[in-house]
Write a structure and sequence with these properties.
Blueprint: H1 5-17, E1 21-26, E2 32-35, H2 37-43, H3 57-60, E3 62-63, H4 76-83, E4 87-95, E5 101-112, E6 118-127, H5 129-180, H6 186-212, E7 221-224, H7 225-239, E8 244-250, E9 256-259, H8 261-278, E10 283-294, E11 305-314, H9 321-324, H10 346-356, E12 360-367, E13 370-378, E14 401-405, H11 409-421, E15 425-429, H12 432-442, E16 448-452, H13 460-470, E17 476-480, H14 486-493, E18 498-501, H15 506-518
Parallel strand pairs: 8-10, 14-15, 14-16, 16-17, 17-18
Antiparallel strand pairs: 1-2, 1-6, 3-4, 4-5, 5-6, 7-9, 10-11, 11-13, 12-13
Helix pairs in contact: 5-6, 5-11, 6-10, 7-8, 8-10, 12-13
Length: 519
């Protein structure tokens, strides 16, 4: 049945009002016979004159989601001609002439002539860019959550191992201190110094593992992120090879975060050093900051609020896909060889510090053109804190009776020997139950208690509370293979006078014990 000009004009008007792009092509040539307004809006152009069968991809800028040019033989028009039925395609991405990227879902259907041949192909396009981006963000968020859960599990294991190693290192450092006392032979002193250096290096590794495991507590004071970044960038400019350009773009209008300046400086330094090592020839390292606000549920890891975001971008070769999802795990490194071969603890430390500060660490982007690492830290409105300097001193002797409590017999034996060498009388108990009973019968003699926090059965907290019930003014120095974490802080808040992380040396033990005795 024929249509009047008025009917055809009405159909065109209706088609132009549709929120769906319409394209009609003649078969089999592929000549475009009609498009509506929405088609030009979505694709950004009117149908080019040279756009025809076998030459759709170039004129329209059609690509696959991975960025490759779309195969001509997979275009909707070609699929319909082959199948002679409606096709649904949702893997087209238009690289528009204005630089935008538009993801399309296309419904392509044949219109048949009286002889059964396909006369026209009608294609309806919908813009699914928001849908694709939402799915990408959801998938990325799920990937981040899975990575975080895996890292938390690895962190628990790493923290436990570091705790046990710190117990063993305490024995080494105390033995070294004991051997040093009264030793005059230069060769023996050199060996002792070597032993102390090895123990110190091992202690740095365990601290890095504890940092990754978030078993350490950072100082909590307002600090300027820009001040930290500025000092690291200045150091990098002075010390890096001249082939590297180090640029700072500090665009955050607020930069005060609540945390530990020393740890945050370590984060920035580790990221800048990693960026340096990723660039094998001439290149640029850009350190930028800005403020980002996240609504509830918007970020996969951090909560709602305002964050100072730090990004370190390099022009290196990027991170291999097999490593990216494991990049923050301990002993995973991209520096397999060369002068800057890594241990794989740098980014693990970055991750642990960022998370312990209530923030997040992530690989923002990576490709063969470079990598951008991103750190987000919660902003604070508190004023900046003044810096303090601490005085250092050596071994401090003392008087009185000290009760030493530890479940590890080797640690207990060496701590008893070390405390005795400081001039104190010493009582010892292996475990909480024995310690409570010994304190009950000897409380009039005990000046202070050196108490291990993690013990099987009756732990450090329960032991302290039992002693406090016996003698409310009991002086306790808490020791642990962890760093100062929330559990230790809770015990300190209950009234414990001091805290000492393992491994400790003789000087550190003597100073901490002297402060507790004098408290």
């Amino acid at each position: 049945m024929g249509r009047s000009h008025e009917d055809l004009a009405a159909i065109v008007t209706f088609a132009d009002a549709l929120p769906v792009a319409i394209w009609v092509g003649r078969a089999p040539s592929g000549e475009c016979v009609y498009v509506n307004r929405e088609f030009e809006r979505i694709l950004g152009i009117a149908p080019p004159e040279d756009a025809a069968r076998g030459n759709y991809v170039g004129p329209y800028g059609v690509h696959l989601p991975n960025g490759d040019v779309y195969p001509e033989d997979r275009m909707p028009f070609e699929r319909v001609l082959r199948s002679k039925r409606t096709e649904v395609i949702d893997d087209l991405v238009i690289h528009r002439h204005d630089g935008e990227r538009t993801h399309l879902r296309v419904f392509a259907a044949p219109l048949f002539a009286d002889d059964g041949a396909i006369a026209f192909v009608v294609e309806a396009f919908t813009d699914i860019t928001r849908e694709v981006e939402a799915e990408r963000r959801r998938a990325e968020g799920e990937r981040q959550l899975q990575a975080m859960r895996r890292l938390e599990s690895i962190g628990s294991l790493a923290g436990g191992i570091a705790h046990d190693f710190n117990n063993l290192l305490s024995i080494v450092t105390l033995v070294a201190g004991h051997l040093r006392t009264g030793e005059d032979d230069a060769s023996r002193l050199a060996m002792i110094e070597h032993l102390e250096e090895v123990a110190g290096s091992a202690s740095k590794l365990t601290r890095a593992l504890l940092g990754f495991a978030r078993r350490g507590k950072h100082l909590s004071a307002p600090v300027s992120l820009h001040e930290i970044v500025g000092s690291v960038v200045e150091l990098a400019r002075r010390t890096f090879e001249r082939r590297l350009e180090v640029v700072a773009a500090l665009d955050a209008d607020r930069d005060t975060v609540l945390g530990d300046g020393v740890q945050l400086e370590q984060v920035v330094m580790n990221l800048v050093m990693n960026a340096r090592d990723a660039i094998t020839a001439q290149g640029r390292i850009t350190v930028r900051t800005y403020v980002a606000s996240f609504a509830a549920g918007e970020h996969a890891i951090v909560g709602p609020g305002d964050y100072a975001v730090l990004e370190v971008e390099d022009t290196g070769s990027g991170i291999d896909g097999t490593v990216r999802d494991r990049i923050f795990e301990p002993y995973v490194t991209t520096k397999a060889s060369g002068a800057h071969k890594g241990t794989g603890l740098g980014l693990a430390t970055v991750y642990g510090i960022a998370r312990s500060h209530g923030g997040a660490a992530e690989v923002a982007t990576t490709s063969t053109r470079g990598t951008t690492m991103r750190i987000a830290l919660p902003l604070t409105s508190q004023p900046l804190a003044a810096r303090e300097k601490r005085a250092h001193c050596g071994i401090v002797k003392g008087r009185g009776t000290i009760l030493v409590v530890d479940d590890d017999p080797l640690v207990l034996r060496m701590t008893v020997k070390a405390v005795g060498g400081l001039g104190y009388e010493v009582l010892s108990a292996q475990g909480g139950a024995d310690a409570i009973e010994l304190f009950r019968t000897s409380r009039d003699r005990v000046t202070a208690v050196v108490l291990d926090m993690i013990m099987p059965g009756i732990g450090g907290k329960e032991t302290y509370l039992a002693m406090k019930n016996i003698e409310p003014t009991v002086r306790v120095l808490l020791t642990t293979g962890w760093s100062l974490n929330d559990e230790a802080q809770h015990i300190l808040d209950l009234g414990v006078r001091g805290f000492l992380s393992k491994p400790f040396d003789l000087a550190g033990l003597s100073q901490a014990l002297a402060r507790v005795v004098a408290a």
